[in-house]
């Protein structure tokens, strides 16, 4: 039996155990089902003449069928390309051109969008047709494949906040070591269960809990779309032990009426990241539900399980992303490439088997980011005297104003300490006088709070050259589909307002 074929192994050990449950379709697959369905799908793919290295592009929400497709792709050496269905037709078309798929799979609700994509010469299947390949009693010959650790398994396209999206290659080796890192840090066993609401086009939608729990023979619940009330009910009813949620999602959950009526006693941890996890959020869940939130850090190019803050340190080390996980090396370097001392800010670099071999069709980007085995993340960070890590912001976020290096995250933290401010986001734009300047967007709990009052409060705690030149009070901070801040929408708002002045 193939060592990396976890599904086949668990189908042999615990064939009747439920592996995947869809709470949307009210259906479940055992490990035996998952193994059998994947073999049937492989039989159909062989008929379609798909071969190792071929790409399968998918425009669909996460589902039971998607998991079967993943298992079949891993066995055959096919590369799964989950497309972001929230992108425009033009944006998706560019990804299609870049990855040149041999097969395009689409959910019925995206057929109209698919009809306008450049896939005339590509084999096309609906998700429903795909499922018919394995929802059958037909006995098919079991074809044996060797799962090669260096074979690409996914291409994940980055969000493109600093330019055109880039396809990050994710290999079987990365999958294995990320799973091991995650399991070691969280003590995952076959008794655990999770509910995934994260989309498939992001590495977190596969590699935070889905693949590590498949590795451990545990249970994975699936929900296509995040619904705060529904999630709380399902976490309670299914005695879920592990859950991943962005800070925005947790805030939405704690504001629902359902929050008071659930105990969530079986929930050991909530893993959070993707943006800063506020210490107030950690304290709230600990005080209200006795649930630990474990902040961490990851990125598409590595892991995503890179650092983790132990739950007993979450309140003692506010705003920390913890320490490096197992089986990886980490360093923080300055512009010269020298390792910095504690409390000195530098670029975070990672080395290990969880690091991508590179970017699809982009050797220039690969060589600029990966040097002598080290991934230069583009994230600024520092450590305290005890080795706990803290993020300072993206390298591309830092701006130079009047010759001074300015980190937006520092300004955001000062703004959020002002009474009445709920959330702050700081970006930068070109400035004729200073080269660059800051623009701040805040939301408030006090409608009477003015821009002038906010500026007065900043004076007492932040040196003047770090003050944002522009400051806007918004009703809400716009978010992406993953719950992260939408910089594109904020820049659009800024450009619209300033053009009218």
Automatic annotation (TrEMBL):
The organism's place on the tree of life at top rank: Bacteria
Protein name: Class I adenylate-forming enzyme family protein
PANTHER family with a match to the protein in the record: ACYL-COA SYNTHETASE, MEDIUM-CHAIN ACYL-COA LIGASE ACSF2, MITOCHONDRIAL
Residues annotated as domain AMP-binding enzyme C-terminal: 410-484
Record keyword Ligase present: yes
Keywords for the protein's UniProt record, in alphabetical order: Ligase
InterPro entries according to UniProt: AMP-bd_C (IPR025110), AMP-bd_C_sf (IPR045851), AMP-binding_CS (IPR020845), AMP-dep_synth/lig_dom (IPR000873), ANL_N_sf (IPR042099)
Pfam families: AMP-binding, AMP-binding_C
Residues annotated as domain AMP-dependent synthetase/ligase: 9-360
Organism: Lacinutrix gracilariae
Organism placement in taxonomy: Bacteria, Pseudomonadati, Bacteroidota, Flavobacteriia, Flavobacteriales
């Amino acid at each position: 039996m193939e060592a990396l074929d976890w599904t086949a192994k668990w189908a042999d050990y615990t064939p009747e155990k439920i592996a995947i449950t869809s709470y949307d379709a009210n259906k479940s697959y055992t490990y035996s089902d998952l193994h059998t369905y994947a073999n049937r799908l492989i039989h159909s793919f062989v008929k379609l003449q798909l071969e190792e290295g071929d790409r399968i592009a998918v425009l669909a929400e996460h589902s039971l069928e998607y998991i079967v497709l993943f298992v079949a792709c891993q066995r055959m050496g096919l590369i799964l390309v989950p497309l972001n269905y929230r992108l425009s037709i033009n944006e998706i078309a560019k990804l299609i051109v870049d990855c040149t798929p041999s097969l395009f799979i689409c959910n019925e609700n995206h057929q109209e969008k698919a009809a306008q994509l450049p896939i005339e010469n590509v084999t096309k299947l609906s998700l429903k047709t795909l499922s018919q390949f394995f929802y059958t009693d037909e006995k098919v010959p079991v074809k044996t494949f060797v799962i090669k650790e260096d074979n690409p398994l996914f291409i994940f396209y980055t969000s493109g906040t600093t330019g055109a999206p880039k396809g990050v290659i994710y290999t079987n080796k990365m999958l294995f070591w990320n799973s091991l890192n995650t399991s070691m840090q969280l003590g995952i066993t076959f008794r655990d269960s999770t509910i995934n609401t994260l989309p498939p086009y992001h590495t977190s939608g596969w590699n935070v809990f889905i693949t590590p729990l498949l590795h451990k023979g545990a249970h994975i619940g699936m929900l296509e779309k995040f619904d705060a009330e529904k999630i709380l009910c399902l976490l309670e009813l299914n005695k879920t032990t592990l859950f991943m949620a962005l800070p925005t999602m947790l805030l939405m959950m704690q504001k629902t009426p359902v929050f008071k009526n659930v105990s969530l006693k079986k929930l050991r941890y909530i893993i959070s990241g993707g943006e800063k996890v506020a210490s107030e959020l950690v304290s709230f869940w600990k005080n209200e539900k006795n649930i630990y939130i474990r902040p961490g850090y990851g990125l598409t190019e590595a892991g995503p399980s890179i650092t983790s803050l132990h739950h007993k340190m979450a309140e003692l080390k506010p705003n920390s992303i913890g320490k490096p996980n197992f089986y990886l090396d980490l360093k923080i370097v300055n512009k010269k490439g020298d390792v910095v001392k504690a409390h000195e800010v530098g670029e975070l670099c990672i080395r290990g088997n969880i690091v991508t071999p590179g970017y699809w069709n982009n050797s220039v980007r690969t060589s600029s980011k990966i040097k002598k085995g080290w991934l230069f993340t583009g994230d600024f960070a520092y450590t305290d005297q005890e080795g706990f890590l803290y993020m300072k912001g993206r390298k591309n976020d830092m701006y130079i104003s009047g010759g001074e290096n300015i980190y937006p995250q520092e300004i955001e933290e000062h703004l959020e300490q002002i009474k009445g401010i709920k959330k702050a986001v700081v970006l930068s734009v070109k400035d004729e006088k200073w080269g660059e300047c800051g623009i701040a967007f805040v939301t408030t709990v006090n409608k009477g709070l003015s821009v002038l009052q906010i500026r007065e409060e900043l004076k007492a705690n932040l040196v003047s050259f770090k003050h944002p030149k522009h400051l806007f009070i918004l009703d809400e901070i716009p978010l992406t589909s993953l719950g992260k801040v939408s910089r594109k929408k904020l820049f659009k708002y800024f450009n619209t307002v300033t053009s009218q002045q």
